[in-house]
Amino acid sequence: xxxxxRGRRAVPRSDAALERRQATPRRPVFxxxxxDTLHDASHAxxxxxxxxxxxxxxxxxEVDRDEANxxxxxxxxxxxxxxxxxVRHHAIDPAHFLRETHDFDVAALxxxxxxxxxxxxxxxxxKVLLTNAxxxxxxxxxxxxxxxxxxxxRYTIENMRVxxxxxxxxxxxxxxxxxxxxxxxxxxxxxxxxxTANLKSARxxxxxxxxxxGHGTRIAGGCVRARRRGAPRAGLVIRSLHQLPHGLARLRR
Length: 253
Ligand SMILES: [Mg+2]
Description:
disordered N terminus
């Protein structure tokens, strides 16, 4: 008979070991978000990008500042990226929009945790970048963080197209297509993100999920600190990327 402690069934040691083995991916492949995950975009970069996007919308859609701000935020909330709304509803040229809104000295504004180069060198498994940001900007951030050589595979907004349409995070269709392209089983994939909506989508497909709360976290309406009550579930919640190596052993789906 199983023993009982305070009304709960005690897990026999062999079962506990089995559970741990099943919970830990055999060969983890890490999919890392960029903004507010690998670096603190809320510190200065988001303000820069938001201002440039509002400028762009104001200029190209010929609306006033308030309306430009409203549209930028509305499309970001509705589609996961302001770009999608502008392409879908206003026939904006995506390459032009991305170039204009991310054309600034990224390295001067990057703020991040110390020791990331060493951390990534010792973190096991393949690392893939998975961001709704554009490629030139993402690559500039990775270089500024000195972790670019660890991310040979980079999924950015330009290559998040499925059947010709932009499908950024949290699109499950895009996540499935990306797993197939990278030849990774969902059970071996670990998504590290600050966005709970993106984690929820990945989790539904079988990814292991890690919620990073150390930087600002974007929720509807803007950026807030994630230290709030009732944060949605993730397999693991970390406040620093340096908690990842140790946390892997406790990682649940
Ligand atoms: Mg993010």
